[in-house]
Amino acid sequence: MDNFLLKHNHGLDLQLHRSRPKSMNEIASQEQAVQVLKKALTSNNLPHLLFYGPPGTGKTSTILALARELFGPELIRSRVLELNASDERGIQIVREKVKNFARTTVTATVDDYPCPPYKIIILDEADSMTTDAQSALRRTMETYSKTTRFCLVCNYVSRIIEPLTSRCAKFRFKPLPVEKLKERIAMVCEQEGVQIEPEATNTLIKASNGDLRKAIMFLQSGAKLHAGEKIVASSINEMAGIVPPEVVSSLTAAWYSTEYQEISKIVDEVMNAGFSAEQILSQMHDHLVTDGELSAYKKAKISLVLGEVDLCLINGADEHLQILNLMLKAADIVTH
Amino acid sequence: MSLWADKYRPQSLDKLTYHNDLSAHLKKMAHSGDFPHMLFYGPPGAGKKTRIAAVLREIYGPGVERVRISTQIDQRQFVTPSNRKLDLNIVSSNYHMELNPSDVGMYDRAVVQDLIKEVAQTQQIDANAKHRFKIIVINEADELSREAQAGLRRTMEKYMTNLRIILCCNSTSKIISPIRSRCLLVRVARPSEGEIDDAMQAVAKKENFSLPHELSVKIADESDRNLRKALLTLEATKVQEPNLAQVQKIVKTDWEIEISNIADLIIAEQNPNR
């Protein structure tokens, strides 16, 4: 029974997780962080760490790979405590669970791995911790620094309170450069036997915006959709939720109209197709910036409207009304 | 006696009448044995839930008929960190679970942290099950608070072998980008007026009455391309006037009439005499 389960487990292993790097050498980019962390492997010492950067840039992967290289697959269970936003992380937990874990000293070692005399507490998605819980960490971090290293992982460093950031070595994870993404995509394609059109690779890179996880996720879904065939650019666009360029240009073309009926019809059409308003806004913005016909003054005025509408949408306004509002205001600006 | 909109809901992917490309893709995916997390989005009445139900059926094969019977609504009780007791209605079967965490308002984070994680950590023990994973359908995902969404992030990754999540929402704008980057986005657009017309004719045929073409076009036009609304309007019209050939005006809901009255007043000339 056990074997059976195990076998299936492997069968279902997902591409995404299979391609998570196992060792420090396999991490796709982020040379600076990797270099410093490699030193930790040899020198038996490590500062508290703070990783920040946009999603899909390898923050969690890096710290997990480091932990694995430090302790090996066996010890990692007793040496590493991983808490993420799916765990309760209120002040109570910081006071009890984290503190208790931080307090214990460890000595056991395993051959082949450095096994330095400290434990690692990984606080993933630390920006979703409350300020109170973060403050409770302050003393814990200092008091038990002999036996425990903390690694905070977050998207927005500004949500981490100052006293915590000043106790950590900060590493910014940059979005992956195009070449690296290309390299990785090619690697995954080769290992998984996925065929992809060169043009689609470019679309994939553009759609993922430096987010490697997104890119691999799209690739995997694309491989499922086109089982055995080549992946084409249009299906990548659909998966990424990108509004087709024709739709955006039909919207921007309507700016030159003075007829309410006409504009309202186009807006109805687009909103009924179910596109996300946020995505429309961002693509309309890209279109606006590169537009050759409008004067800079008009562009600036339309940008202001775009900003206002974006704010309204974030506050939870109705998408249809906001897009209609945006279109009418833009048309007013363009035609006057 | 159920409403037509529910009674004639297509049960399988093959029976869906529009977005055939999408249905074909979903089918391929369901048969491939592996399955990503999915995020269905689109305006109301476009057929998102119908598609999700059809996909579930497709995945869990012939056993699904039984799934529907064993489907039951149960109430789950759990306690928030602040010792508050909450109740949540869940529709579940052996293979899937459907819930609506936004029902509990600001405590939705507790649902994600307790309930979903509990399911995620349980392995499928039925050796005959077709797949090792369970599916959790989260409705109204755009109403989830940011904290709850953040709580989903690692759960979605870590327990990938035990769990797939299908999110259903009206717009992706309110879904945080880390969740979006973990899901396959599926856009369900509203059907065109012609497709609504076809669907209504099909229902009319099954209910054994003839639906005049002019009327069905009129209803399709009135319903803002919302299929559910169109079917409800059709049913209401039929109940009020069994002979559809004589129908001149379509029954509107009270609030629609009320709102159009107000709008008329706004447009009308404003003077002190009124």
TrEMBL record, chain A:
**Cross-referenced SMART domains:** AAA
Cellular component annotations (GO), alphabetically ordered = DNA replication factor C complex; Elg1 RFC-like complex; nucleus
Where in the numbering of this chain does the AAA+ ATPase domain appear? 45-179
Where does it primarily localize?
A: nucleus
- Cross-referenced Pfam families, in alphabetical order? AAA, RCF1-5-like_lid, Rep_fac_C
| Single GO biological process annotation from the record | DNA repair
Instruction: List the SUPFAM superfamilies.
Output: P-loop containing nucleoside triphosphate hydrolases, post-AAA+ oligomerization domain-like
The entry assigns this protein to a family as follows:
Belongs to the activator 1 small subunits family.
Its Gene Ontology molecular function terms? ATP binding; ATP hydrolysis activity; DNA binding; DNA clamp loader activity
Gene3D superfamilies given in the database record:
1.10.8.60, 1.20.272.10, P-loop containing nucleotide triphosphate hydrolases
Question: Can you say where in the cell this protein is located?
Answer: Nucleus
Q: Which key words are in the record? A: ATP-binding, DNA replication, DNA-binding, Nucleotide-binding, Nucleus
Species, as recorded? Umbelopsis vinacea
Q: What is this protein called?
A: Replication factor C subunit 2
| Source organism, top-level taxon | Eukaryota
| Record flagged with keyword GTP-binding | no
From TrEMBL, chain B:
- What keywords sit in the KW lines? DNA replication
Looking up InterPro entries in the UniProt record yields: AAA+_ATPase, DNA_Rep/Repair_Clamp_Loader, P-loop_NTPase
A Gene Ontology biological process annotation? Answer: DNA repair
GO cellular component terms, semicolon-separated: Ctf18 RFC-like complex; DNA replication factor C complex; Elg1 RFC-like complex; Rad17 RFC-like complex
Q: Which GO terms describe its molecular function?
A: DNA clamp loader activity
Domain called AAA+ ATPase: residue spans: 34-191
Q: Which residues form a coiled coil?
A: none
* Top-rank lineage group of the source organism: Eukaryota
Question: Mind telling me which PANTHER family this protein's record contains?
Answer: REPLICATION FACTOR C / DNA POLYMERASE III GAMMA-TAU SUBUNIT, REPLICATION FACTOR C SUBUNIT 3
| Name of the featured protein | AAA+ ATPase domain-containing protein
Species, as recorded: Umbelopsis vinacea
